[in-house]
Amino acid sequence: EVQLLDSGGGLVQPGGSLRLSCAASGFTFSNYAMAWVRQAPGKGLEWVSAISDSGGRSTYYAESVKGRFTISRDNSRNTLYLQMNSLRDEDTAIYYCVKRDPHFDYWGQGTLVTVSS
Amino acid sequence: EIVMTQSPGTLSVSPGVRATLSCRASQSVRSNLAWYQQKPGQAPRLLIYGASTRATAFPARFSGSGSGTEFTLTISSLQSEDFAVYYCLQYNNWPLTFGQGTKVEIK
């Protein structure tokens, strides 16, 4: 059974940093591209970032986070990461880890990031 | 960026009735279109991919059609558990983009 366990969310001040993690199981993690999708309170879904399979040499970012967020993966730990720097109020959202095939076929339960002073 | 436009924003229907949801792309996404169902407090779940292939967790009353720029999600006879928000996603071009969602509510 595919499982994605998101963690690392919390309350952070504007300008601060946070690193999200996603522990994957139930599939061969290194064989699949992965991504992050977020959902602001009461709003729709927004794709944030994606990383290719295997070595993760290809990464992609939404314009809204480019230069501030970094996606990475550790295939030895079956874990996906999202390093978020220079956080803004508008980054407040539930962040979901998703498996790509190439659509998003499995989703984590989400981790809440709140940016507020 | 490809803009995905869903209509209507809210669909009020009675149980047992057929529901038709629309998703339009600002340029062709071929058949690289997925639909997701999201219930309050839950993560979205994959419903349809490749525009018309139904995910195994969902019953046959759900169907998807279309290609290029026009797509439709049909629920043939709405059940109580189908009341939710539905999103479309194009995964043909970067950035990947979602529609704004259609809320299906009980009439």
Summarize the structure in words.
The complex is a heterodimer of chains A (117) and B (107). By secondary structure, chain A is mostly beta strands. Chain A has no helices and eleven strands. In chain A, a hairpin with a 7-residue loop joins strand 5 (45-51) and strand 6. Helices cover 0% and strands 50% of the residues of chain B. In chain B, strands 2, 4, 5, 6, 9, 10 and 11 form a seven-stranded mixed beta sheet that branches. A four-stranded antiparallel beta sheet of chain B has the order 1-3-8-7, with no helix packed on it. Chain B is globular. The relative contact order of chain B is 0.34. The mean pLDDT of chain B is 96. The chains are: A mainly beta (117), B mainly beta (107). The interface between A and B is medium-sized, with 20 and 22 residues.
Task: Briefly characterize the structure.
By secondary structure, chain A is mainly beta.
The quaternary organization reads as heterodimer
Helix/strand-derived class of chain B? mainly beta
Structural class of chain A: mainly beta
Q: Which sheet architecture does the biggest sheet of chain B show?
A: 7 strands, mixed
The count of helical stretches of chain A stands at 0
Spatial gap, N to C terminus of chain A: 40 Å
Report the helical percentage of chain B: under 10%
Give the overall shape of chain A, derived from the CA principal axes: globular
Beta-strand fraction estimate of chain A: over 45%
Give the CA-based shape of chain B: globular
Reported for the largest beta sheet of chain A, the result is: 7 strands, mixed
